[in-house]
Amino acid sequence: MIIVGLREADQELEDWEFQTRTGFERSTMRALLEAIFKEERWGQVYTYTLEFSAEEVQMIVAGLREADRKLEDWEFQTRTGSERSAMRAFHDEILAALNKTE
């Protein structure tokens, strides 16, 4: 879901609205997406732990939020591969974890 959120935010947001909506430069979010996506390109499934900086977690939250906001109900599952409710739950879990650390 992390990759989906970042990818959809990158694809759906216009250049003029990207930084305003996400709080980040498009190039910064693309760099994070590229770093995560490298593991997926080999076509194998791995279980591993990813470590993110606070800024990277904020980018992930922004990506999930914008994917939820921009995608219509009829296209959501096809484009993301998951239910909207599952993405919203994941988004909420990340926010709750962030609030606990503050």
Question: Could you please describe the fold and organization of this structure?
Answer:
The chain is an all-alpha fold and 102 residues long. The protein is globular and about 35 Å long. It has helices at 2-12, 15-22, 26-37, 54-70, 73-80, 84-101. The protein has one domain (2-101). The protein is built from 6 helices and no strands.
How many distinct beta strands? Answer: 0
Average pLDDT, rounded to a whole number, is 84
Instruction: Give a quick account of the main beta sheet: strands, pairing sense, barrel closure.
Output: none
Number of domains: 1
Residues in helices, as a percent range: over 70%
Strand content: under 5%
Q: Give the count of helical stretches.
A: 6
